[in-house]
Design goal:
Blueprint (H helix, E strand, L loop, with lengths): L1 E5 L9 H12 L3 E7 L4 H8 L6 E5 L9 H11 L5 E5 L2 H14 L3 E5 L1 E4 L2 E6 L4 E6 L5 E5 L15 E4 L29 E5 L6 H15 L2 E4 L1 H5 L20 E5 L5 H7 L4 E6 L12 E4 L2 H11 L2
Parallel strand pairs: 1-2, 1-4, 2-3, 3-10, 4-9, 5-9, 11-12, 11-13, 13-14, 14-15
Antiparallel strand pairs: 6-7, 7-8
Helix pairs in contact: 3-4, 5-8
């Protein structure tokens, strides 16, 4: 079996979810190749060539792939899949957007959000918002798989000596075009890869209160900021902070849930954290059922006190 891994963008950086996807691809057996696509992709391709377990790196250095447009990626991947048995990508916004189109072109069933690989055709994936794990077997000749990066260890960034090969791109499909992107500068760690996440819920009452309580605590801990869907929907935090089934899946060393009741959709996004700390004034809140450390109290008193004691 030969497996192709779609590297997470942007093209000039080899991001951590790609390293986790490489580990997952290796569990399928056989050679692992990595596709890096986008303008200026050689830097990330060179980094990918040094990753342990990678046999070959394919580079499509073309501006058509710089913005992750699925309509441009799908034809390229479809052509490349003639030489591969499986396609693997992290279950990020990018992977979830591109791979279903490739699966449709190949006329196969995509296997989504895989958390364990039991063999070349047998996989574990969460269902019912993570409250159950399904073991599924695919009889398709070619496998199209997205994997939860948090479920797989990152491949070692050094130790490999893969060859790097340029591949011709299909270019612009003409079906969509990139307009613009607004990128918010962030001084804190990226939410998906952060070791510590401080997450707030609707109990924080307003955007101002969210910032007053959460930001100083996160800065003291060197943590990323997260939020429940209720807090995001209420406008307390931006969409890219949302943790949960319809947001980001995180598995930090420490997850601090502040004023979050613990709806099953939120738990699906953070229950794999190594240590869960819950602060809530409702002692019957569901979040306490999964918490390693629970504190019943008023978040408007407890959190400022925590921040002060952290110095």
């Amino acid at each position: 079996m030969t497996v192709l891994v779609l590297a997470e963008g942007p093209a000039d950086i080899l991001k951590d979810p790609t390293l986790s996807a490489i580990t997952a691809a290796g569990a399928l057996g056989g050679d692992v190749h990595v596709l890096v696509a986008g303008e200026g992709a050689l830097a990330a391709a060179t980094a990918a060539a040094h990753v342990a377990g990678v046999a070959k790196v394919l580079v499509a250095d073309d501006a058509a792939y710089s913005h992750g447009l699925a309509e441009n990626f799908a034809p390229l991947l479809f052509e490349l899949m003639a030489s591969y048995d499986a396609l693997v990508a992290p279950a990020t916004t990018r992977g979830k957007n591109i791979l279903p189109r490739v699966a449709a072109l190949l006329d196969v069933q995509q296997i989504s959000e895989v958390i364990a690989i039991n063999g070349p055709d047998c996989f574990d994936r969460p269902i019912y918002a993570g409250s159950a794990i399904a073991t599924v077997q695919s009889k398709d000749a070619k496998k199209v798989i997205t994997v939860r990066a948090t479920a797989f260890a990152k491949a070692a960034a050094n130790g490999g000596s893969a060859s790097v090969e340029a591949v011709p791109g299909e270019g612009e499909s003409g079906m969509s075009m990139f307009g613009s992107r607004e990128i918010a500068a962030a001084e804190r760690p990226e939410l998906i890869t952060a070791k510590i996440v401080v997450s707030g819920g609707r109990a924080l009452r307003s955007e101002e209160q969210f910032q007053l309580l959460m930001y100083p605590l996160a800065d003291r801990l060197g943590a990323a900021i997260g939020a429940s869907r209720a807090a995001v929907d209420a406008g307390y935090a931006p969409n890219d902070c949302q943790v949960g089934q319809s947001g980001k899946i995180v598995a930090p060393d420490v997850y601090i849930a502040i004023g979050i009741s613990g709806a099953i959709q939120h738990l699906a996004g953070m229950k794999d954290a190594k240590t869960i700390v819950a602060i809530n004034n409702d002692e019957d809140a569901p979040i306490f059922q999964v918490a390693d450390i629970g504190l019943v109290g008023d978040v408007f008193e407890v959190v400022p006190e925590m921040t002060r004691k952290l110095g």
